[in-house]
Amino acid sequence: MKKKWIALSAALCLVISLLGACGNTENGSGNTGDKQTQAPASNGDVKDTDAADTEGKTTAADDADDEDMSEINMVYISMGPIPNGLSDVQDAINAITEEEINTHVNLEMIESGNYEQQIGLKTSSNEKVDLLVTLPMGSASYNNMASQNQLMDITDYLEEYGQDILSTVGDLVKATTRDGRIYGVTTYRSLVTSAYIVMRTDVLEDLGLLEKAQNMTSLSEYTEILKAVKESEKWGSLAGIVPSDAVGTCLALSGCYLGQDKFADATAYDQLGDLNKIIAINPDGSDPVVKNNYAADEYKAMWEQMQKWYNDGYVYKDVTTNKEMAGQLVKSNVAFSFFCQSEIGVETSKTQECGMPVTCVKMLTLPTSTSSCTKFVWTVPSSATEPEAAVKFMNMMYTDSRIANLLAWGIEGTHYQVKDGIGYYMDGEDANNCAYHTIDFLFGNQFIVLPWEGQSADFREVAKKEMDEGGNSAYLGFSCDTTVISTELSAISNVLAEFRPAVDGGVASADDYQQFLDKLEASGIQKVIDAYQSQLDEWLAANK
Asked: For residues 442 and 403, is the Cβ–Cβ distance under 8 A?
């Protein structure tokens, strides 16, 4: 049994060690007794974590000195190799949580290529997982796990322990609400996303193509750049286009129709919360008819474009079997470019992921939709044994910048330093040799994470303003109860696994594409579309 005095001792020891470690930071935090550690407030300003972050927070240990300490297992995805400093970050987090919410947190990161499989194994074996983040698609997606009854209803826990979460995300919680009950919370981040082409800046500069890339407005111009890279003696070994994820996604990004030559002619569709790209509907509300996305002319146009690029040798030869994220392929010197969806500050985030400077060109901006909110969702699995403690810790992730910064950037003075309100690697370190550095959008509330090098000190405030002013789909908040079509969705999932990497990667022939559509029909895709249409009609009638 762990007692409060143990937690206090651990906290004091860590504070002493951090004060020593921080003595060399350039912002001076922690090197004298009259200076305190600084962290970003939710509005992008810097606030005093010793005072502001603890103001108004409950301390479970104070209320229950003799209460057994809760222990939670938190599982989440790593966008690259597992960082060496993870255990140190875990210790730093527990120095806070053991004292303030009487909870010990075990962190488990799983690399992207293994995440879906490992979550499936943990779920099927009923392994103790108290908190996990879902993926944008596949068996570990929010929609799939909720439909399979693998997630707890956390409505009451949020009401008791997560009021700060609810006030932070506001109406966005509707996206993860089913029949009035909440089964997860979207990561609160810049949800105004755009489609981008991401290219290595060093290659563009070496070939004299940087200005051309920065100013391009069409796929034709992009093709000219791909051709120049392929024909270059120095860079010709690079794959021109690699998939952005481990399921072969290239041009056919979720919610985007990018097959037209001019970027200005690209259009968006709403997936109505379906992350398998089965469902498509016009997001402006003018035509509330649900369609089979894969049979749409706009989707076929993307396949046709990818097929041209593949036949011309511009697409990664392992596009159908690749299990790595695009950033890792760039970092490994395999790739020149890829397509992605991202938010404001994309060049900074992708530079971090790729381990080198990249140039990003916007193609299309999408409205915020249910699908935007269900890409990454923090949930309490059905196998959780400590749901109360899990939600208490969630509440800290969404409101406490100390926790948010530890999860994203690590320990200040050890893993990163702060200059003028912006985070930087320690001197002599970068993305390739630092002990700990992850991503800022995954851990609850991106807006309380310190801006990183390449961003302005007020970047979070600017991003928050952009999101607040961005447009929403007419169907934000609608979600389909897919239990009535679970058999069909399972069969369709198998078809997608068989065909979609080849279709999205341009490998599939016209006959392959038709076989893909035929198998979708045989698997019951029309029943799925009908179920979405019926429930959408009811939702629209109830929300007039």
From this structure: no
